[in-house]
Amino acid sequence: MTAIAALNSGSSSIKFALYTLDEAQEPQLSARGKLERIGEAPALRVVDGQGAPLMAQEWPDGAGLTHADLLSQLFEWAQSHLDQRQLIGIGHRVVHGGGRFIEPCLVDAPVLAALDELCPLAPLHQPHNLAAIHAIADIAPHLPQVACFDTGFHHTLPAVATRFALPRAWHDKGLRRYGFHGLSYAYIARQLAMVDPALAQGRVIVAHLGSGASLCAMQGGQSVDTSMGFTALDGLMMGTRCGSLDPGVVLHLQQQEGLSAAAVEHMFYHDSGLLGVSGIASDMRTLEASAAPEAAEAIDLFCWRVVREIGALVASLGGLDGIVFTAGIGENSAATRARITARLGWLGAKLNDSANQTHAPIISAPDSALSLRVIPTDEEKMIALETLSVLKGQHP
Ligand code: ADP
To answer: Which residues participate in substrate binding (predicted)?
Structure first.
């Protein structure tokens, strides 16, 4: 038996999953884990395919441990967990494929160099994705590594949806709308086609509401518009990111308030969103449990921004047949889904309250004009599927 791994490596955390391959080459989840607090006091938790704890480890004095150090320990653990099963490849989430990389691909030195050149387009994410590829290449030089792109799913965006109204030379230099969360959207499109093929053929908005949040307008399972553009800052309000702003705010902060570019970047990525508006937390659970008016205000703004952006995407789609909620908030916060759908009565959305409370797959009332669904996302599974397809030679 063989196995493949999926890695999603960020600035302070690494998510991973191990899949064994049965005779039909179907990936079966064998272990899933998260390494958190890298750079402070790293902690690792791993569960098996059924969610039962497999192992946990903490490094209270591990502030000096690098991603590479921790990946090396993780790799060792994975080898022992897999026992006799041979690891035949590792897939990585790579946030930016630029205009060139759409399909997942095997990583070799020229590909890695080309991906490195895209780092300025996603400076807070891409370097960490690539560092993991470098680290695995050192640990296991002959193991095939596959890059799976978060931008790839959006290659079907019509040209008009990719352009900023800036002088065209900047567009030609790559300043355009790309869209992100593509692995999640690809997974949801695949699942929706299985559970509701008729809806999947129609006009659907997928709401990926997690720490990072975005919306994707799909027509027949393909992305035709999305709320994130050039960077993962765009669009919706997020846990700590501000989402779309009047660009004049950036100019004002720098020119009138004297903030450095680095200070503005830090504010927009780390001190804004639910955290910035509430002054309490970035975590929706904490805000929902809080009695502070600032928490309620942050939640209200979060939902309002989702509704407003849905309105824009409905216009792009020329109508709407359904909404799919996914990711941490979309899958688990019945209150957020209720707040959002309550503002969508004008579209004919009608919630089934008890189905919503239990996070049922279908949460629309029978007489709702829109189909409302909850589908748990699984970016690691999508990475595994894409990796497998590359290893089987189905992708060039
Ligand atoms: P990421 O993968 O980007 O870390 P997630 O998709 O896990 O993000 O989403 C994290 C968000 O989901 C947090 O705001 C968290 O509070 C929220 N969340 C998770 N479970 C619940 C829940 N039961 N109720 C409300 N919000 C939840």
So the answer is: 93
pTM: 0.95
- Whether 158 maps to a domain, the answer reads no
Question: Do 221 and 144 have their domain in common?
Answer: no
Q: What is the CATH number of the domain that holds 93?
A: 3.30.420.40
pLDDT at 396 over 60: no
Beta partners for 160? none
Ordered DSSP codes for 96-128: --TTT--S-EE--HHHHHHHHTTGGGSTTTHHH
Residue 212 assigned ligand-binding role: yes
DSSP helix, strand, coil percent of the chain (3-state; round to 5): 40, 20, 35
Ligand 1 pocket (Cβ < 6 Å) reads: 210-212, 239, 283-285, 288, 327-329, 332-333
| Number of domains comprising the chain | 2
Nearest to 16, CA basis, from 42, 36, 39: 36
User: What integer pLDDT is reported at residue 152 of this predicted model?
Assistant: 96
* DSSP code of residue 246: -
Catalytic center residues: 150
- Which protein residue's CA is at the shortest distance from atom 7 of ligand 1? 328
- DSSP per position, 4-43: EEEEEE-SS-EEEEEEEE-TT--EEEEEEEEEE-TTSS-E
CA 334–ligand 1 middle distance (angstroms) = 12
